[in-house]
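Our platform keeps sequence and structure together, in a single record for each protein. Because each token names a local backbone shape, the row as a whole describes the fold. One such record is reproduced below, unchanged from the form in which we store it:
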Amino acid sequence: MITSESAGVPQRVSTGRLPGWDEVESLTVTAHERYRDLHDGTVADYIPVLAGADPGLFGLAVSEVSGAVHRVGDSAHTFTVQSVSKAFVYALVCREYGHEVVKDRVGVNNTGLPFNSVMAIELNDGHPMNPMVNAGAIATTALMPGATPAEQWELIRTGLSAFAGRQLTMDGTVYASEMATNHRNKAIARLLESYGRLDADPLEIVDVYTRQCALLVTAEDLAVMGATLADGGANPVTGEQVVSPDVCRDTLAMLAASGMYERSGEWLFEIGIPAKSGVAGGIVAIAPGKGAIGAFSPRLNSAGNSVRGQRAIAYLSRALGLNLFASDADARIGGTVAAERTRS
């Protein structure tokens, strides 16, 4: 549960700007110190190579839309992006085809079932439902432009690199380990094909999808990638316009609804910001107009979300006033909501 871990943390109520640089820096360090010795959760082992991850690793980064980046702990440690990639590939596909086409082909509704559920497909007449579960993510990857799987893969790699502000590379060992064991994803792709939801060879699509999951990132990369979505598609570090503001809106709405798997409702209720997690231990959480948090720690809960990452983000959401639903009439100054007032 997230609630008890954030109890007693002073809550800043704001829909405006972040506090000053020094305060954000201090709170980022505090969040890391508060949870670095938390040992709940277990390292994922259904992808064999991930079972060897050091459970003690914990990195945290906050990227502001101004371009300022706050880093603490193992924020520069590389790990595979895994399911966090779903959010950014979805944004690239939305950039290519637009709101209505992607909504129709992939869907926007939470399944309420585990991320790799086959039952969800059958219960919905073969519809993938949303791009944040494996069926929807495979359908989304299939929509990437490119005449060949190799072209699709390169467009994904360069697209996610633009979000991160640096060239990303793939971990070949993790890719090989996943391809040797991802029988369920291959079955999901075959099932989608049987319902006419895929226009290309399902196993080739799974190969591209597995490559995107094996891209190497850091907690800082995730923060910058998230801050790009927070800033209307403009990378706050490089200044590149990666996607449009409309694409950011659609992507963040999708993350709010389904980004944390079957725990998405609890996450939104307690934390109040769009987020996406990955089985390697990464989480990106995004506060529109303000910035984003990138967290990494391999210990996961039963839903596949990083335990330390969740707790740290919960703390920062309250302390920095990131919750989209928090407001206070007494905090209004001159017609805008002030960032200065806090409450317990």
